[in-house]
Amino acid sequence: MLEVKNLYKGYGKIPVLKDISLTVTPGEIHGLIGENSAGKTTLIKCVAGIYKADQGAITYDGKAIYDNPEVKEHVGYVADYNEYIAGYSVTRIVHMYECFYEKFNKPKFNEYNKIFKLPVDRKISSLSKGQKMRLSFMLEISKEPDYLILDEPTSGLDPVAKAKFFELLISEVEERNIGVLISSHNLDGLERICDSVTMMHKGKVERQLSMEDMKGELTRLNAVFEGGASKKVYELPQILKISNVGSIYTLIVKDYDEKFAGELRKNGASFVEEMEISLEELFVVLEESREKNSPNTMQPNSSKE
């Protein structure tokens, strides 16, 4: 099990990570989300053993990773920006990994490359950002790690490559029972693959829930107000966001129940339908509510979707 306990990391007197704790178990994909500058990349680099924590502990199956080559043998890390020796070809990089990592599985790399189609004789310097990202993923997964740490792994990938990436990642987790910690702004992708999510804000853990419970925090409703929604509807404290196209209104609501649906009908709704909220929509609404610093009030807003 990957465990982060009470982690603190700062640069000089500036704190970046404050009392971070999380766990990733074998067979689990754990998502890490948050706004830019929330501290996600710093946390990822600490977990990968690149940065040393100022306080707290990071362990893999009870062993610390920092300055521990034995543990790093079992951990794969794909950075948000990957650079290798520019003058080396892909083939030469693969050979280097074979020399460095005893468990490196070259046949697996070759099988993956039938999908990602990297030109193996080309120099690294000639590869695009997306090609370097594919290379990094294939190299790290071919190490056959017990844990895989991924920082924006779909950056630079086209839609087809993204779909293949997520498919292969899920397959690897199912076949080898590896634990995965993945940070990404691609919330739609995370929603499809993650078992649990940690939401960060300004260096702290704000929420840490299973994917199901995370999405259960808010509810998306479609409601029809044929004469338009009244001011009383906008003032209902459960509503965090409201928008409309004609008479059809979309509401993001906290603490939704049938009593609230009754309130909407009482105030003119002829139809109320509960919809599943996406992780991305949930994240955006929570961010907007935080910025307003008043999540329990809602001003009339005639914005269209």
Write up what this structure looks like.
- Strand 12 and strand 13 (248-254) form a beta hairpin.
- The chain folds into 2 domains: 2-210, P-loop containing nucleotide triphosphate hydrolases (Rossmann fold), CATH 3.40.50.300; 216-292, Malonyl-CoA ACP transacylase, ACP-binding (Alpha-Beta Plaits, 2-Layer Sandwich).
- It has a 6-stranded mixed sheet, sandwiched between helices. A 4-stranded antiparallel sheet has the order 2-1-4-5, covered by helices on one side. Strands 12-13-11-14 form a 4-stranded antiparallel sheet.
- The chain has helices at residues 40-47, 69-72, 90-100, 106-116, 129-142, 159-176, 187-193, 211-215, 231-234, 258-266, 279-292; strands at 2-11, 14-24, 29-34, 55-60, 63-64, 75-78, 147-151, 179-183, 196-201, 204-210, 218-224, 239-245, 248-254, 271-275.
- It has 305 residues and is α/β, with parallel strands linked by helices.
* Class of secondary structure makeup: alpha/beta
Number of domains: 2
Note poorly predicted spans.
294-305
Number of helices: 11
The helicity comes to 25-40%
Spatial extent as radius of gyration: 23 Å
Total strands: 14
Spatial order of the strands forming the largest sheet: 6-7-8-3-9-10
Quickly name the level 1 CATH class of the largest domain.
Answer: Alpha Beta
**Terminal-residue CA separation:** 43 Å
- Describe the global form: elongated
Mean pLDDT level? 91
CATH architecture of the largest domain: 3-Layer(aba) Sandwich
The name CATH uses for the topology of the largest domain is Rossmann fold
* Approximate strand percentage: 25-35%
H-E order: EEEHEEHEHHHEHEHEEHEHEEHEH
Main sheet summary: 6 strands, mixed
Name the CATH superfamily classification of the largest domain: P-loop containing nucleotide triphosphate hydrolases
